[in-house]
Amino acid sequence: MASGFLRRLFTFFHHEKDSGKARLLKKLGKDIKGSRFSRFYKVKPMEIEPPMGKYFYDMYKALSHAQVFLQNAVKSPQLKQITVENFLDMQHLDARQRLNADYVAERAKTMPIAEVSHLLKGDLTLLSDAFDTDFMTRVDMCYNRILSLIHLADFDYYLFLRKFDPAILERNFNGVPRFKPVRGSLLVEAIKDFLEVSYPVETELDWTIPLQILRTYKNGMDVVKANEWAAVLSSLRELRRSSILELMVQHISQDPRWEFKPRITAEHIAAAYLEERRQEVESALSGFLHSQKQNQVNALAQELFGDSGIQRFQHYTEKDNEVFIQKGLKGFTYTQSLNYLKVFLVDFFRLDMQDLCELLLIRGHWSSMEQSKEMSEIFHALLDNTNHLLALEQSLGENGEKGANIRTALFKSGRNQSQLRILNTLIQGINEEAWGLLSSTAEALIRLGSLFKEILLDVKNEGMLIMNYRELQRDRNPPLTQHIVLTYKRIYAFLQIQQLLTGVDDSLSPEP
């Protein structure tokens, strides 16, 4: 008994629901027939009529050039730049023109880089002053209106129109199309797509500036003629006021409660443009400083080694870094510094400085055991670092432990991404070892240079730091004093190179 009552209750509500939907659909039919665009759609057969095809054909014809000209325009940084700069006055445009690497290089020829940096920062501040809230709002609104035109032009009118006339040709308007009625279900999704791209187009506003910007973007060519765009806006305005497309979708899908939910584009390009200019300035300055620094390094290396491009370290190089970069890793950090360290320790310390230090330590009669002991400690520290450096290079080679571990992790990383973490840890450990060698060698050389300077000063003042200095000086070629001066200058030049490349401390004066 109870179950029968529930069935009757369910049937009653279901019938009422169906009756309500039927009433809404009937009203929909009347609304469509009463619309000024009733010629677009026949309610009974649920067919879309040729006049709607003609409407879209006319819009396609007006926007066909824009469809071609504006391909990929949505992703174009140039279009964004043109849009922003269209709103800048001459003063701010002049400032913007100076915010680039070419300006840095040109001005740096005649003034210190610190002054160039000051001028650029002044120009950046001047440009930033233009970007108040009102300015950025106007720029963003204009750009979003341009995007709405691009999206409207990008609608697939050709595919839409082929449903009315399969013989129609793409972007060919010479013939007269023969449109036939189309079953509504074949176009209902396309109508929804058109609603989405057409809704953001603001039909009531003045489009002079957006069209002017697009003309500039296309080097003086009209992507759409002003009178044709005005006609498109007028027809869209009337179509939107009638709500005929929404009514058609509801009726074709038999869903009178369907609602179109517009998605409004809201790009913010003004703030991004200003940030790009800031980054451009920073990049230009850092790039120039890096170039200047590298030029200094090359000049010092040429003077010190006779060849700025000399390459001695074989397994910690920029070439090795290529495979790490492909894997998204930073790679070896001190390639140039470590290479020059090997050249200095092997070519100068082992072949020349070692002999000088041994002469002073073994044959010299020091009045201060403390200073003699200090030189001995420095000498052995440099010997240890030389051996450590060569051992590191060997370990990174074909048969070395570190090299084998790196190659294994690289091979496995193609199948197992966790190997990248292992690889990164290996590289980081090698970088730390390299930095330890660089910093400890620099510290030892600074101490050695200071001792050499003290010895030279003592000799000049006829002191007694090395009591038999005159004896050591005899029969030396080059003379001992000259040898110490030359070695000091080599140490100073090397420390300058390392200071420029890595920032290690350089507290020696250029002259001993």
What do these coordinates show?
The structure is a single chain. With 512 residues, this protein is an all-alpha fold. The protein folds into two domains: 19-269, no CATH class; 311-502. It contains 20 helices and three strands. It has helices spanning 2-34, 50-69, 77-86, 90-97, 101-107, 113-130, 133-153, 157-162, 188-198, 208-217, 226-242, 244-252, 269-305, 318-326, 335-363, 369-395, 401-413, 418-460, 469-473, 480-502, and strands spanning 41-42, 47-48, 182-183. It starts with a helix and ends in a 10-residue tail after the last helix. Residues 9-16 have low confidence and may be disordered.
Helix content: 55-70%
- What does the average pLDDT come to? 91
Describe the main β-sheet briefly: 3 strands, antiparallel
Class by helix and strand content?
mainly alpha
Order of helices and strands: HEEHHHHHHHEHHHHHHHHHHHH
What is the helix tally? 20
Tell how many strands the DSSP assignment holds: 3
- The low-pLDDT segments are 9-16
Key attributes of the depicted protein:
512 residues; 3-stranded antiparallel sheet; 1% strand; mainly alpha; 20 helices
